[in-house]
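Example record for the data management plan.
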Amino acid sequence: MNILIVDDHPLFRHALIQAVRYSLPQAQIHETAAVNELYQRLESGAEPDLVMLDLNLPGASGFSALVHVRAQYPSLPIIVVSAHEEVSVIQRAIAHGAMGYIPKSAHPSHIGEAIRHVLEGEIWLPPNLPNNLSFDPRASDETELAERIQSLTPQQFRVLMMVAEGLLNKQIAYELDVSEATIKAHVTAIFRKLGVQNRTQAVLAISALNIEEKKL
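Corresponding structural encoding:
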């Protein structure tokens, strides 16, 4: 069994690895810290049996990475592991294709339980959720946007996330080690697929998949 953990916090990533090893000592565990690293591993042909994915990652915006990876690798089970414990966030994650949701405050025993359930094709949710759980209406409103994002190639998705971060075409070209003309072609294709006219509209569109932070 090969499990890929994707989280940008080294301390939590280490703790999660230890929890998985305790529950599933036979598992082979790999780790990455960003969406680009995740795609590099998947594109190398080393597809894992399961991905454990944080929602707040470099190179992603809210649910965007979950939506896109799910579309590119539809048979790959994904468990979201997140500090967000709001019911609405859990509902949206499941609606966007996650097979399980583990809050970072969960007891370590829940991790092995969740993995076993998901690998058996079942959806696993935290045991403290209400029995009458219904889907967040925002998830259905996001369906069209999710489908548009799913139509992007992995490289177009990377470019879109960099556009959302405010990088210029020249900067994106440097980061991805390609020509500026290639990036311009990607941006044109992204605008067409998202149904937008410019960068501002593209950023506003992708922001619909963001997660609202709690107000303290």
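Summary line stored alongside the record: The chain has a mean pLDDT of 88.
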